[in-house]
Design goal:
With about 375 residues, this protein is α/β, with parallel strands linked by helices. The chain folds into two domains: about 110 residues, SH3 type barrels (Roll); about 200 residues, Alpha-Beta Barrel (TIM Barrel), CATH 3.20.20.370. The chain is globular, with a radius of gyration of 26 Å. It binds zinc ion. Zinc ion binds next to loops.
Length: about 375
Amino acid sequence: MKDAMGTFAEERKVQSAKCKVQSGSRHRFAFCILHFAFCIFFLVCDIPLVLAADTWPFTALRRETYRVIPGFFRVGVPVPAWDSRDSLTLASGTRLWQLRAFEAGGEGYALCVDVETLRTFVVREDDLWRGTTEEKERGPFVGSPFLPLSDSGDGGQGTSPYERALERYAYVPMTGKEQEWVVMTVDLCPSHRRWDRDLFEALREMRTGDRPLPVAVCISGAWVRRHGPAFAQLCAWDREGELDLTFVNHSDTHPVGARGDFLNNEGVDFEGEILNAEVTLLAHGVVPSPFFRFPGLVHSAARLKALMQYGLIPVDADEWPGQGDIPTDRVPEGILLVHGNGNERAGVRWFLEMARQTGLRERLRDGQLKVFSLTDYAGEE
Ligand SMILES: [Zn+2]
């Protein structure tokens, strides 16, 4: 009996060991399959395996510290700065308009715009003050960045391209039809659909030599939070010089409003919509530009005036192909709006067909046609 029991127990041990071996190989097999599927997924989707997050100091940005602190500075000694592509050094003499202040990882930072180029940067607040001349008193102008710029004491003669753009588009947002400009803007309003990757691939292919196509991506905070891998891919293309992206604030949640009045709705937290989108962009590796696109292109005089208090330049559109019947055999002039968020496939189809019929890529390559960035356009006389 004892023998029988002993044999039985040994058999069970052997059986159990066999099971473990089989179960171990099953796990290894499953792991290999998963690993293989994972690699294929990343290869097919072309998702960057290494993101820049580990070198980006603003992932830990604290929303409660993010605020509007205007000020005008002239850089004294060269200061380190960040834009969406790189860390760099701002030369002595650079004139900066501070838009925001915030804290991340225990340090204070400032989001600033170069008033000559309209490019935005983040600099350490300490660096901004060290060796830098503040040209205007802050106190009387807090909450009203526009005032000190206009009140520069030179009758407006010496004001910068940024100041002039703020003034010029204060009552009527930026358009450009009569100027024979082509400015490409792609809206990424919140959407549960997959992005129109083929649109961005087509834009990528319009790179001429070492000059990537300038594209303004009007992006909502909600889209960034929902579509992490797609957003990371866009940022990677920008950093790698495949696309020249300007990230335009398109509000945080993009409220449509009960009557389709979008941000005009009085119940909307206008400041929250502006600042939360910026915080999301900064925390995800992007420095927002000084431009703003109103959702639905809907705005009132009151909202435009309020927008100016945040130092942002509103951008409308001349052509919105997804909403109208626009011929595909000519390249439209002005600011072109298509959606890249999967919500308006008609506009993407129109763009791809227009590009094919007009030979857009070849004409850009031959220099017959030029697409401009928003900063180029806004900085022009
Ligand atoms: Zn939108």
